[in-house]
């Protein structure tokens, strides 16, 4: 089946060698005090469980571990078994850094499969967050996501156009603000790629002028969508006589170097906080475009990138939509909308494992020119075919010998 595919399931699974898991197990001390659910077994269990279960839960992971097919596929001991409570406890205590380092190693290997030109458009890194609220009400600590102060978990991710390249889990209430969460993820990625030439594309979550100034000071290039009609002082216009320009699908309204205002918090004599409007003397670029189909709708972009044309700035921001599609994929197809663990430790483990599974599917998708859903379906079929081949070999051509054990 699908013989024209350029990369097969077996080839992708080979990117997760036993030596890597063994080396990281020793490095992170992940198996300290573990009796059955060693790091490697948890890795395989979550990898297979996320891929195979339409509704993932601790109970379904228990059934997965005790399934002889799972044990055959990953060469595990047939006599071992676990219960749901053991999985729950292990998720709450296992070292998440083990899974983070596996994720980073696999990303590094996978990213080498495609050239920098495949990422397209100036090394754009789309950065955004998604909120998970289902079953999150039982969290001891969570991000407040609405006026009812409902507890949630925030996943903030950087996406390079093909793969998720950096991620963080936030459960503290102060990370409700994207002005805090998004720059932290950006700087985490900058530390990984010190000589980078990336442009970080962010949605309206980044509004703080002081944060933008900090990013500029650290040589981080960004493009962010601003709120319409935010206050600024124009220093220089990059279009003659401020005339509107045709950009094809859109019309350029303004392209200027500007200073932006910010609010400085001040406590008054009664102890109440108010904000004093202050001009930040750091040059930014303001690009305003409007749609030809809906001229009343304007899009304001703030950036510290002055080399690109206004059209290139708007097209770069348009690429941000890729991360929205990615979030929809992991929520609908990889169970991210449902928390398997209510412990932050377990939540981090599940995010890293979900991103690992996502990378397997995305590389399969990219190499074989498939859609998201088709790639996942055919990847699962490839795993099934691999299992069938192993069963046939183990049973000497008679699968009943495997399923009808006495």
Would you kindly provide a written description of the structure presented here, covering whatever features stand out?
With 406 residues, the chain is an alpha+beta fold. It has a domain at 9-101 and 341-403. It has 15 helices and eleven strands. The chain has helices spanning 9-13, 18-28, 39-52, 58-65, 68-73, 84-93, 96-111, 116-119, 178-192, 209-217, 310-318, 321-333, 344-368, 372-394, 400-403, and strands spanning 124-132, 143-144, 151-159, 164-170, 199-202, 221-226, 232-237, 245-246, 250-267, 273-291, 298-303. Strands 1, 2, 3, 4, 5, 6, 7, 8, 9, 10 and 11 form an eleven-stranded mixed sheet that branches. Helix 2 packs antiparallel against helix 7 (96-111), helix 4 (58-65) crosses helix 6 (84-93) and helix 7 packs parallel to helix 13. The model has no long low-confidence stretch (mean pLDDT 87).
Structural class: alpha+beta
Low-confidence stretches: none
The SSE order reads HHHHHHHHEEEEHEHEEEEEEHHHHH
Q: Strand content of the residues, in percent?
A: 15-25%
Question: Which helices and strands, and how do they pair?
Answer:
Elements: H1 9-13, H2 18-28, H3 39-52, H4 58-65, H5 68-73, H6 84-93, H7 96-111, H8 116-119, E1 124-132, E2 143-144, E3 151-159, E4 164-170, H9 178-192, E5 199-202, H10 209-217, E6 221-226, E7 232-237, E8 245-246, E9 250-267, E10 273-291, E11 298-303, H11 310-318, H12 321-333, H13 344-368, H14 372-394, H15 400-403
Parallel strand pairs: 1-5, 5-6
Antiparallel strand pairs: 1-3, 2-3, 3-4, 6-11, 7-9, 8-9, 9-10, 10-11
């Amino acid at each position: 089946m699908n013989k024209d595919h350029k990369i097969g399931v077996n080839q992708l699974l080979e990117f997760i060698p036993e030596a890597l898991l063994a080396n990281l197990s020793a490095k992170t001390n992940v198996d300290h005090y573990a009796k059955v659910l060693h790091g490697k077994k948890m890795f395989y269990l979550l990898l297979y469980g996320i891929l195979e279960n339409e509704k993932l839960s601790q109970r379904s992971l228990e059934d997965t571990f005790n399934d002889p097919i799972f044990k055959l596929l990953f060469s595990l001991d047939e006599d071992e078994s676990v219960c749901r409570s053991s999985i729950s406890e292990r998720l709450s205590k296992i070292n998440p850094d083990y899974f983070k380092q596996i994720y980073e190693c696999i990303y590094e290997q996978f990213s080498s499969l495609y050239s920098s030109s495949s990422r397209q458009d100036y090394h754009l890194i789309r950065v955004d967050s998604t909120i998970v609220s289902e079953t999150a009400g039982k969290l001891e600590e969570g991000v407040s996501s609405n006026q009812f102060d409902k507890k949630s978990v925030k996943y903030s991710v950087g996406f390079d156009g093909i793969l998720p390249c950096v991620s963080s889990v936030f459960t503290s209430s102060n990370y409700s603000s994207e002005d805090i969460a998004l720059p932290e993820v950006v700087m985490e990625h900058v530390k990984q790629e010190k000589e980078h030439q990336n442009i970080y594309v962010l949605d309206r979550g980044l509004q703080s002028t002081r944060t933008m100034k900090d990013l500029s000071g650290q040589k981080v290039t960004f493009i962010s969508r601003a709120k319409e009609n935010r206050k600024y002082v124009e220093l220089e216009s990059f279009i003659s006589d401020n005339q509107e320009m045709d950009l094809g699908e859109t019309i350029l309204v303004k392209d200027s170097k500007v200073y932006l205002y910010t609010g400085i918090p001040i406590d008054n004599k009664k102890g109440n906080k108010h904000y004093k409007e202050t001009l930040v003397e750091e040059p930014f670029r303001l690009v305003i475009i409007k749609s030809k189909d809906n001229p009343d709708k304007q899009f304001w972009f703030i950036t510290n990138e002055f080399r690109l044309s206004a059209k290139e700035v708007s097209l770069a921001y348009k690429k941000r939509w890729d991360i929205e599609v990615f979030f929809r994929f992991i929520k609908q197809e990889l169970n991210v909308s449902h928390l398997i663990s209510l412990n932050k430790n377990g939540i981090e483990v599940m995010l890293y494992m979900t991103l690992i599974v996502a990378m397997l599917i995305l590389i399969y998708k990219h190499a074989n020119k498939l859609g998201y859903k088709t790639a996942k379906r055919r990847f699962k079929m490839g795993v099934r075919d691999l299992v069938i081949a192993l069963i046939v070999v183990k049973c000497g051509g008679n699968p009943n010998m495997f399923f009808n054990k006495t």
